[in-house]
């Protein structure tokens, strides 16, 4: 609930309490028995009518304030739900929570080896196709994820955040499975290029459910 809505609800609650007191109050103070006994019948009738009218007006005002209070409460609740939705979206993006849902799984064999720039292209294609979250070999992809290739006596290997990626490389992306698959496999796309130009044959599968871990 926002601070302004909270203050408004508090103000309305106080006003309702005060109006309740005014509606139920009887003649006090100066309008004591001795004072009333000196009034004419016509004056007393007029006073009664005035008080009755005022009571009706106050009851209408209370009804209106109650309606406004309920409306503010509904708006605050809806605003709270909207804030929670935005928070969950941010958590998905930064990888702070585990996420479960349908999507695609891409398996890349060891031979021939893939270059790290090809992995970057794959990630970009998945994001562009509407992926909500992505992982590679169990590593959640976040804003600061980096890929690179390192060469040593054993050969060339890929790294993610400085950690060696072992084959087969398994990429998981959560989102609409059909849309993600089409984004990867259309003619002239990333998968077509890997197969045609580099003889790399990744396997693309659509899954009804998968779990991606939170970022490490």
Characterise this structure.
Strand 4 and strand 5 form a beta hairpin. With 216 residues, the chain is α+β, with helices and mostly antiparallel strands. It is 52% helix and 21% strand. It folds into 2 domains: 92 residues; 114 residues, Alpha-Beta Plaits, CATH 3.30.70.1880. About 6% of the residues have low confidence. It has 6 helices and 8 strands. Helix 1 packs antiparallel against helix 3. The strands form 2 sheets. Strands 3-2-7-1-8 form a 5-stranded antiparallel sheet, covered by helices on one side. It has a 3-stranded antiparallel sheet with strand order 4-5-6, covered by helices on one side.
What's this model, at a glance?
The protein has 216 residues and is an alpha+beta fold.
- Topology as H/E string? HHHEHEEEEEEHHE
Shape: elongated
Largest sheet: 5 strands, antiparallel
What's the helical proportion of residues?
40-55%
Low-confidence stretches: 21-33
Average pLDDT, rounded to a whole number, is 78
Rg, Cα atoms, Å: 35 Å
Strand % is 15-25%
Strand order across the biggest sheet?
Answer: 3-2-7-1-8
Distance between the termini: 32 Å
CATH architecture of the largest domain: 2-Layer Sandwich
* Fourth-tier CATH superfamily name of the largest domain: Protein of unknown function DUF881
Structural class: alpha+beta
Number of strands: 8
Q: Note the total helix count.
A: 6
> What's the number of structural domains?
2
Output the CATH class name of the largest domain.
Alpha Beta
């Amino acid at each position: 609930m926002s601070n302004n809505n909270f203050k408004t609800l508090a103000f309305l609650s106080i006003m309702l309490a005060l109006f309740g007191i005014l509606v139920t109050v009887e003649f006090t103070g100066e309008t004591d028995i001795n004072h009333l006994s000196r009034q004419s019948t016509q004056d007393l009738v007029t006073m009664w009518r005035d008080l009755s009218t005022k009571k009706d007006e106050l009851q209408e005002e209370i009804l209106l304030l109650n309606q406004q209070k309920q409306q503010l409460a509904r708006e605050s609740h809806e605003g709270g739900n909207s804030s929670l939705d935005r928070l969950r979206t941010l958590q998905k993006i930064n990888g702070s929570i585990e996420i479960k849902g349908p999507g695609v799984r891409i398996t890349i064999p060891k031979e021939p080896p893939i270059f790290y720039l090809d992995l970057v292209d794959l990630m970009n294609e998945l994001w562009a196709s509407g992926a909500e979250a992505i992982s590679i070999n169990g590593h959640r992809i976040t804003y600061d994820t980096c890929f690179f290739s390192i060469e040593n006596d054993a050969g060339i290997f890929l790294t993610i955040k400085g950690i060696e990626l072992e084959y087969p490389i398994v990429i998981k992306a959560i989102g609409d499975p059909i849309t993600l698959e089409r984004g990867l496999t259309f003619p002239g796309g990333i998968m077509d290029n890997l197969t045609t130009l580099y003889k790399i044959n990744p396997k693309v599968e659509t899954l009804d459910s998968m779990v991606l871990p939170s970022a490490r």
